[in-house]
Design brief:
single chain, alpha/beta, Aspartate Aminotransferase, domain 2, two-stranded parallel ribbon, 13 strands, 14% strand, binds (2S)-2-hydroxybutanedioic acid, Asp_trans, pyridoxal phosphate, L-aspartate:2-oxoglutarate aminotransferase activity, aminotransferase, pyridoxal phosphate binding
Length: 401
């Protein structure tokens, strides 16, 4: 049965983490996978998450099944925070939600739902570059996928004209993947004005917005600011939209797989029907979602003092990342790194998109034990005051040779 099976190379980002872990050099620096690290390069359990965990344990934790759609208080808390209370109150009866296996699971549920509801599988437009899993998720479900130029490698900035052109030419009823904020890997987001233009063109051309929202609150430290495009499309523009929400980064719940798919529709019966369909799709796929992480997130979202602590935690993470971005920039300039590095401080979010050649990336990995993705994306959280000068100096040395 299986004699035609081919070997699939390991996922590049996970393989990079494994390589880093196997490196015995005391100098090694992990700038690969997007996971937050504290100033000592250690994983960080958010204080708000610790408090929520303690409260759950004190009350007594059981391990029964969750409902198929997931924990109701988590789904509602998620919809409220993503939409903001005003929009939530306005559209509460027009949304369908389903707890998911983090952001990837939400994208997958979105794909299953689109496949089940559309006459013909729509084309999915995906920015280039993008998060490495986007193509895989939609291709594996049989969607035709088209890349569009999002980033100009010459100017090292968002290519907004190419973006608008794609939207104007895309076949109506296509899907467009939108990074809600902190575009992965480039760190370049549209401005608010550009988002308005994107929304207007998409509405006029009947394109379906599917947001990948993995960094809300983690990008700027201000949740409302980061959720701006979602609220613009579903509020001011009154559009149907899908939102794939992850709590991996902004609550540090990576391995617990806490996420939610939210669909904003136009009518109440539509929302009921679509939610029933999500329930059926979820049942056939994972039966019911995992409980522990969702209970933690629900506790944080539903308790004012824990929520306040969480906002502070997101500010702690995003401000440390901002400080390290600036420190890398300063050290690159101080060590005389050739070229301009302004792009680095114009970007935002977890990643820096350095613009180094593959040769330099591999040399940094092999000779200097500095690990970054092949496209020279760095997870800035891997930098700290103990290694940033070394990283900058090493980049400078490689570029000079
Ligand atoms: C990343 O982009 O490094 C993270 O989102 C981790 C992943 O799953 O790829």
């Amino acid at each position: 049965w299986f004699n035609k099976s081919e070997f699939i190379p390991p996922d590049a980002i996970f393989a990079l983490t494994a390589k880093f872990q196997a490196d015995s050099s005391p100098q090694k620096v992990n700038l690969g996978q997007g996971t937050y690290r504290d100033a000592d390069a250690k994983p960080w359990v958010l204080p708000s998450v610790n408090l929520a965990r303690e409260a759950l344990l004190t009350r007594g934790l059981q391990h029964e099944y969750l409902p198929i759609l997931g924990l109701q208080s988590f789904r509602e808390g998620t919809a409220k925070i993503v939409l903001g209370s005003e929009l939530f109150d306005k559209r509460a009866t027009q949304i369908a939600t389903c707890q998911s296996l983090s952001g990837t699971g939400a994208l997958h549920l979105a794909g299953l739902l689109l496949r089940a509801t559309q006459n013909k599988q729509p084309t999915v437009y995906i920015p280039e570059p993008t998060w490495s899993n986007h193509h895989q998720v939609f291709k594996s479900l049989g969607f035709p996928c088209e890349s569009f130029k999002y980033y100009d490698y010459e100017t090292k900035s968002l290519d907004i004209d190419s973006y608008y052109n794609m939207l104007k030419q895309a076949e109506p009823n296509s899907v467009v993947i939108l990074h809600a904020c902190a575009h992965n890997p480039t760190g370049c987001d549209p401005t608010k004005e550009q988002w308005r233009e994107i929304a207007q063109v998409m509405k006029a051309r009947e394109l379906f917005p599917l947001f990948d929202a993995a960094y809300l609150g983690f990008n700027s430290g201000d949740y409302d600011e980061d959720a701006f495009p979602i609220r613009l499309f579903m509020g001011e523009m009154d559009m149907e939209a899908g939102v794939c929400i992850s709590f991996a980064k902004n609550m540090g719940l990576y391995g617990e797989r806490v996420g939610c798919f939210l669909l904003g529709t136009k009518d109440e019966q539509g929302a009921v029907n679509l939610q029933s369909m999500l329930e059926m799709l979820q049942r056939s796929e994972v039966s019911n979602p995992p409980g522990f992480g969702a209970k933690i997130a629900s506790e944080v979202l539903g308790n004012d003092s824990l929520k306040e602590q969480w906002f502070q935690d997101m500010e702690t993470m995003s401000s440390r990342i901002r400080a390290m971005r600036a420190a890398l920039y300063d050290n690159l300039i101080a060590s005389g790194a050739p070229g301009s590095w302004d792009h680095l401080i114009q970007q935002s979010g977890m990643f820096g998109f350095l613009g180094l050649s593959l040769d330099v990336v591999l040399r940094l990995r092999d000779e200097y034990h500095i690990y970054m993705a092949d496209n020279s994306r760095i997870s800035i959280a891997g930098l700290n005051t103990g290694n940033v000068e070394y990283v900058a100096r090493s980049i400078t040395e490689c570029l000079r040779d």
